[in-house]
């Protein structure tokens, strides 16, 4: 359409792009399979490049992953904590040697159309790092039990990081505490548990946010999750409507 036509101008005036609280990540199974080896998890983390997905898979409607919390969580960037203590990544030769005869089982579900496409890109990246990868792509309801039971080595996952309460602690406790009800990464790490517990017990808002970001750094240290992109959404608002707040959720 001609950019000067009225229809296009109206469309531009009614479309509003806003960061969402949805982060897409590679969740790594730390409890069983090949990724019980921290050096292999580190190799996978170094191999995966979420920025390659921004234009190709998300058509520009995403930001490269900076952590578990993206631009929609307005306070996260200024309080982000440097990640230290990560394992040294295995070299390509070491990956091939340590995984000889083993296949990296990479899962993605079809409920969000972009995830299988992202999985294909990640498969290529992981294979360049020395892994042998096999995808399993199904509807989410068909694989949830297997995901929670640790039947896969990694999952391309899309997750809302501020749940119903809008409190990030609920997400961290559910997904990354040793007893978390949605701990697909099967992570059991005392430092992570303590960091999340400390955040949950903090009543001061600013200190709570700081402790949430400290917990994020502890989780990222384990390479149980590799943030890929933070999704954006487009919201339509008629030009004669005033006072609308763009909602990242």
From TrEMBL:
<feature type="domain" description="Solute-binding protein family 5">
    <location>
        <begin position="14"/>
        <end position="180"/>
    </location>
</feature>
<dbReference type="InterPro" id="IPR039424">
    <property type="entry name" value="SBP_5"/>
</dbReference>
<dbReference type="Pfam" id="PF00496">
    <property type="entry name" value="SBP_bac_5"/>
</dbReference>
<dbReference type="InterPro" id="IPR000914">
    <property type="entry name" value="SBP_5_dom"/>
</dbReference>
<protein>
    <recommendedName>
        <fullName>Solute-binding protein family 5 domain-containing protein</fullName>
    </recommendedName>
</protein>
């Amino acid at each position: 359409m001609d950019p000067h036509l009225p229809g296009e101008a109206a469309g531009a005036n009614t479309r509003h792009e806003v960061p969402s609280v949805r982060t897409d990540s590679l969740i790594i199974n730390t409890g069983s399979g090949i990724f019980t080896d921290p050096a292999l998890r580190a190799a996978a983390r170094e191999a995966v490049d979420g920025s390659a997905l921004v234009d190709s898979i998300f058509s520009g409607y995403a930001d490269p992953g900076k952590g578990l919390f993206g631009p929609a969580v307005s306070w996260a960037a200024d309080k982000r904590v440097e990640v230290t203590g990560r394992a040294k990544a295995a070299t390509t030769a070491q990956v091939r040697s340590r995984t000889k005869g083993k296949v990296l089982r990479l899962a993605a579900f079809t409920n969000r159309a972009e995830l299988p496409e992202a999985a294909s890109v990640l498969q290529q990246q992981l294979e360049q790092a020395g892994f042998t990868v096999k995808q399993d792509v199904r509807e989410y309801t068909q694989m949830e039990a297997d995901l929670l039971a640790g039947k896969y080595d990694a999952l391309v996952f899309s997750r809302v990081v501020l749940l119903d309460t809008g409190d990030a602690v609920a997400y961290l406790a559910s997904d990354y505490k040793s007893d978390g009800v949605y701990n697909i990464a099967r992570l059991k790490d005392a430092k992570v548990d303590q960091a999340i517990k400390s955040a949950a017990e903090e009543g001061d808002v600013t200190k709570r946010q700081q402790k949430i970001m400290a917990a994020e750094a502890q989780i990222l240290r384990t390479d149980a999750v590799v943030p890929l992109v933070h999704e954006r959404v487009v919201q339509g608002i008629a030009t004669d409507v005033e006072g609308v707040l763009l909602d990242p959720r």
